[in-house]
Amino acid sequence: MHQRDNTSRREFLRGSIAAAASVGALNPLVRAESAEATNRPAWPVTCRDALLREAGGADIWAIMDAVGVDGAEVLVNPDMTMPNMVAPGKTYSIATPDDIKRLADELADKKRQIGALCLFSRFDDRPEQEVDLTVKTARAAAALGSPVVRIDLVPHKIKDPDEYVKFCIKIGRQIVDATKDLPVRFGVENHGGTTNRPEFLRSVFDGIGSKRFGLTLDAGNFYWFGHPLSKLYDIYAEFAPWTCHVHCKSIRYPEADRQRQREMGWKYAECRCPIYEGDIDYERLARILRKSGYQGDLCIDDESLRKFPEDQRGEILKKDVAFLRRIARIG
Predict the structure, then answer these.
(1) Adjacent-strand bridge partners of 151
(2) How far from chain centre, in Å, is Cα 268?
(3) Which of 166, 215, 247, 294 is 20 to 30 A (C-alpha) from 147?
(4) Are residues 16 and 99 part of one domain?
(5) Is residue 31 domain-shared with residue 122, that is, in the same domain?
(6) Domain, as residue range, for 2
């Protein structure tokens, strides 16, 4: 019985493939779409450097090789050092032109890229210093061939929401004006209680009025915030034209809770999961991004790694990479 089932299955597959080939041969639209998908440039797949470190090892380049990513999002400290970029006998920084050149040469040698430089910004706490740091980081990003500086808009001192929106618009315009000669964009990550609100992002982006000041779209954070699963794709579509960098993570909520408005962070510690196992439809997101003309990377931000022993994390990252490689050509 088992053998007959296998034979029938093979015959069915052969027939299906032949039928599909016949349709493609007769239909020029199918042939054109197939050719377009084959020739479409895939988005790079990268990973946050902190997560690469969590996968283990004291050599960031070896970890990238082991999990198969094209590069990383790299954290930059206020002193412009890069704490998660580690290699035997080496440290990395973008503090001086020589530091930048050494890193650029090593990236070229290793055939890796920096998808984004990451700043944990505190603009309303120390505006002049943070704007200066952001501009300097953008100049380093341009020299390194990195297209994005990932930033934060998180209120620390300004408590009034309307005042904070006005402050962010002012800061954003300063940054855009100070870097108008650079091919670099600024991606505000949606996380926490402020930037996961579409109305806040809408007000800030419209107020600044430059696509160079846009979004690091964290697909999982909008879900973490409590937005129902079915509403996520409308949010993604609205902000896709502003998106310059994408963080990929996922959550697997009980089925009864996916479509309701949940409180912020509800059961995240237990429900976070690898990207390939979660509720978020990354194929659907990829089609939304492709339609908007997105040209950045897909950066792994899989916070479920912390649920697993260190010796399992590398394999999970490999599976995330394989999953996103397929997603990177969709659309």
Answers:
(1) 188
(2) 19
(3) 166
(4) no
(5) no
(6) 1-39
Please write the tens of the pLDDT for every residue from 70-105: 999 999 999 999 999 999 999 999 999 999 999 999
Contacts of 199 (CB under 8 A, 6+ apart): none
Task: Say whether both 90 and 63 belong to one domain.
Answer: yes
pLDDT band at 27 (very low <50, low <70, confident <90, very high): very low
Total structural domains within the chain? 2
Same domain? 159 vs 294: yes
Structure tokens at 120: 């944990």
For residue 148, give the DSSP letter.
E
3-state SS record for 75-123: ECCCCCECCCCCECCECCECCCHHHHHHHHHHHHHHCCEEEEEECCCCC
State the DSSP code for 87: B
């800030």: which residue's tokens? 204
Can you give the pLDDT at residue 39?
58
- CB of 233 within 8 A of CB of 286? no
CA distances from 48 to 53, 70, 163, 216, 300 (A): 9, 11, 32, 13, 6
Q: Tell me what the mean pLDDT of segment 261-279 comes to.
A: 98
Picking from 177, 172, 242, 183, the residue whose alpha carbon sits closest to that of residue 214 is: 242
Instruction: Please state the rounded mean pLDDT for residues 123-151.
Output: 98
Residues 6+ apart with CB under 8 A from 313: 54, 55, 56, 305
With beta carbons less than 8 A apart as the criterion, state whether 313 and 54 touch.
Answer: yes
Among residues 43, 12, 19, the alpha carbon closest in space to that of 287 is found at 43
Cβ(113)–Cβ(145) below 8 Å: yes
| Dihedral of the alpha carbons of 136, 157, 245, 182, in degrees to the nearest 10 | -30
Cβ-proximal residues to 243 (8 Å cutoff; 6+ apart), any chain: 187, 214, 215, 216, 217, 289, 292, 294, 296
| Per-residue DSSP letter, 331 | -
Report residue 315 as tokens.
């394999």
| Tokens linked to 100 | 């930048």
